[in-house]
Queue: 2 jobs
Job 1
Amino acid sequence: DTTVKQNPRYKLARVGKPVNLICSQTMNHDTMYWYQKKPNQAPKLLLFYYDKILNREADTFEKFQSSRPNNSFCSLYIGSAGLEYSAMYLCASSRRTGGLTGQLYFGEGSKLTVL
Amino acid sequence: QQKVQQSPESLIVPEGGMASLNCTFSDRNSQYFWWYRQHSGEGPKALMSIFSNGDKKEGRFTAHLNKASLHVSLHIKDSQPSDSALYFCAVSMGNYAQGLTFGLGTRVSVFP
């Protein structure tokens, strides 16, 4: 039973074109994350929203943007896709408990291929 | 910066056998440890967490943590074909703002 949904599941993009990935969750979680997963690499945290506060990792700060119009939805935006953006993008959500990261619930992922 | 390393990269286990997965982390201030499992075509799903030194058992799965050795392990008893998946170790510093750091994963294949 997947309660974190990602769209699209597969995305083909041209170099230099924008890409927008969407994630939704129905668990009323306060935190939503985006991870990037490339073959033979560990999932890498790109950014996360705690409520309406966006936290971006320093090394990906300029490469990815995000918005969270309401508690249930979160997007990941790439302004100009490069070949290096080809990857699986995993969205996850969790509930903050006592200042700690709770269990992450992941979606099935959006596979982005940039040509 | 936190480094999380998993071994072995892959593991083949007979049905009914024991699978043992290892994970080492670099930061001694690490506080919380998770094991996630990902079946093909799905997102990772949390298996179990462990916060204190020692063993924690949940059904056929046992996690072991030794913070002094910077080591956490997962043992799968009576392995089933449905246990065939990619297993990730994930580490939290306890600081919410830092999220979880994942290892590369161990691919487990259970053959009948």
Job 2
Amino acid sequence: RKEVEQDPGPFNVPEGATVAFNCTYSNSASQSFFWYRQDCRKEPKLLMSVYSSGNEDGRFTAQLNRASQYISLLIRDSKLSDSATYLCVVNLQGPGGFKTIFGAGTRLFVKA
Amino acid sequence: DAGVTQSPTHLIKTRGQHVTLRCSPISGHKSVSWYQQVLGQGPQFIFQYYEKEERGRGNFPDRFSARQFPNYSSELNVNALLLGDSALYLCASSLEDAIDTQYFGPGTRLTVL
């Protein structure tokens, strides 16, 4: 089982649609959680941190469920510019040291 | 303020050669992490350094090594290059420990022939 698993995608949605991405992680010692977006051949850019209380930034809402080891990202009113790969990221500190684990990413295509 | 910078942007090497990649973190950031990203996959964690000490290491062979300098910049070294080392190498910096938010540089695209 992969340490961080995301929906394989791709997701193809029309402009204005609501789209949800899911991510699960296997290590209960994981300490911090993030969503990044990555455009083709570019570096990942931080989208938002993820907290148990949930957080919202405009059209984007992220949620963490520690009991289920599950992270989600909701995008409302999709724009063409939202087309990108969305990466789920987990940080953990264990006996072997620190580790950051990325999911494989979910590709989103928003069409007019 | 300048973001994370990396050099070179592109590099072509042949099998068996050695490569050094460089990274300068955001001013004031003390932690640097290195990642390898091959096409179609998420970045894979290689190393994390904080205050010049290695704090984490991913599942990479000993051919990969890194260090962090007193000014918090960092180098990633790869010896005895293999074709499979062809990838985008990303550096990320964070303010303190890498549990914090990480900010990525544009990457170095390495091609091994």
